[in-house]
Amino acid sequence: MGFIARWLVTAIAVGVAVWLVPGFTIVGGVESWVAIALFSLVLALVNMSVKPVLQILSLPVTFLTLGIFYLVVNTFMLYIAAWLADGIFQVGFYIASFGSAFVASIVISLVSSIVNSLVGADS
Q1: What domain range is 9 assigned to?
Q2: How many domains does the chain have?
Q3: Mean pLDDT of 51-80
Q4: Is 120 within the bounds of a domain?
Q5: Separation in Å, CA 85 to CA 64, 67, 82, 110
Q6: Which residues cross the membrane (predicted)?
């Protein structure tokens, strides 16, 4: 799947997570769709560059937990993307707690899977 398609799927998933998950909100004076697009860009870049390294480093723990720790890795990707988006684009995403980030990562994963299956793209 091309990067633009991955970015659009991530933007849809982040929009749904912002809408559904309390504690995962946009802060600042930027329009909400612009903030979601910029955050999704950062999240897609982080998922392509940092996430494979963290997956390999956490492989023993992921194996022991039968794959559940993979959701924790996704949660950390949200924290890294929020920190980078705030630092680079001054687009703030407020993450209230680890629990809200954890639920948001589950929502983003599910919505991304559903949208990918609808458009026929492989992830």
Answers
A1: 3-115
A2: 1
A3: 93
A4: no
A5: 33, 28, 5, 23
A6: 7-27, 33-50, 62-85, 91-119
Per-residue pLDDT, 92:
78
**Any domain includes 77:** yes
Domain assignment present for residue 122? The answer is no
- Is 102 a member of any domain? yes
Reference 81, options 68, 91, 69; nearest CA is 91
pLDDT of residue 27: 82
pLDDT score of 1: 64
Residue keyed to tokens 């559903």: 114
**What pLDDT sits at residue 109?**
93
Distance CA 80, CA 43 (A): 8
